[in-house]
Structure prediction request, 267 residues.
Amino acid sequence: MKKKWYDYLWVVSLTYLILGFFNILFAWLGLFCFFIPLIISLVNGNKGYCNRYCGRGQLFGLLGGSFGLSRKKDIPMWMKSKWFRYGFLTFFLVMFLQMLWNTYLVFTDVRSLKQVVTLLWTFKLPWHWAYHGTLFHPGVAQFAFGFYSVMLTSTVLGLITMALFKPRSWCVYCPMGTMTQLICKAHPHRKS
Amino acid sequence: METIKRKKRKAFVDENFCVACGCCAKVCPMSAIHVPNGIMAKVDLQKCVGCGKCAKECPASVIAIQEVENEKEMV
Prediction:
């Protein structure tokens, strides 16, 4: 099968992760990964983003497939259950709101900027080398640190499940995938 | 000489667990799978040759290759 331009979007995902090591403000670009899937599902009523344009999924497919970094075993039943998928989506959204709240506190000067990336919602990694000041409010940088934490955490989780199960196991419980599937289910132009 | 007619094999998606990621559609050599509504993958059984590539690729392992008795079952 001939490859299309969107089959190389894994390069964009990888570049995004690398850029975050040099300047945290690039983390803002990750918002595209949030808004594009939502817009596609809301407008078209399909999961076009997951199906074609998800660079992260492609990256896992490449590492687990061509690079052989996956055991290629079946994912456990509980991980594909609706309870887990919706539960993980809820947890993810709560954590996202908490990140937005922390950003708000920095914007309102209640709290000072923390130059750390929080991995797996627990481990605070020093990340000061990637912050070189901002022309705007420190809150802008706080959002970048928070958002990069979300992106790095999901990548690490995806890599773990890629290694343990099938390459794109992340797609099974990806919060964006679950959310866009829910939108498609409720879409008025849903085809029966 | 007696000829043995093999039953046809087709891909079937477990609708309850499909996450509509589209990984199956990407690897299908016959373009027999689509995710038309973002809810679940649909297999065009007329096009499916039962090669099993989709089942192998599916991250949720919800595609099974099953033998079908006759063409009527393929509706």
